[in-house]
Write a structure and sequence with these properties.
There is one protein chain. With 118 residues, the protein is an alpha+beta fold. It has one domain: 2-Layer Sandwich (YaeB-like fold). It has 2 helices and 7 strands; from the N terminus they run E-H-H-E-E-E-E-E-E. It has helices at residues 25-31, 38-49, and strands at residues 19-22, 60-62, 73-77, 83-90, 95-105, 108-111, 114-115. Strands 1, 2, 3, 4, 5, 6 and 7 form a 7-stranded mixed sheet that branches. The N and C termini lie far apart (67 Å).
Length: 118
């Protein structure tokens, strides 16, 4: 370069994805949901939670009140947002713990086929 300012190129290192850890109970929760929805749930969980699980969006929000199994975030997905994924983020370990998956039917929430009272 002659007489001009030097060109500065910044390289933004991509952060590694979060690790998804599923609670043992989630297998039971999925058994109560029709198999045809399992791939949708899996792809949405991976797409929404691997890189920015703590960024609030229209369908990903911190819980306003605690839920019994320790989750502090909720992901809504599927047609009419009928599925709910409850999770906790451990940012220091870059880990997302998926603690429960349920089905919302009107104003009722079912996890593992049982209605969650609240």
């Amino acid at each position: 370069m002659r007489g001009g300012d030097p060109t500065i190129i910044m390289v933004m290192a991509k952060k590694p994805p979060f690790v998804l850890v599923y609670a043992d109970e989630v297998k039971e929760h999925l058994r109560a949901i029709e198999n045809k929805y399992h791939s949708l749930i899996q792809s949405e969980v991976e797409g929404q939670l691997l890189f920015e699980p703590e960024v609030e969006t229209r369908n990903r929000q911190p819980l306003q009140r605690p839920i019994g199994f320790g989750a502090d975030w909720e992901l809504r997905l599927g047609t009419d947002n009928r599925f709910r994924v409850f999770y906790q983020v451990k940012a220091e370990n870059r880990e997302v713990s998926v603690l429960a998956i349920g089905v919302k039917m009107r104003n009722r929430l079912f996890i593992g086929g049982e209605e969650l009272e609240g």
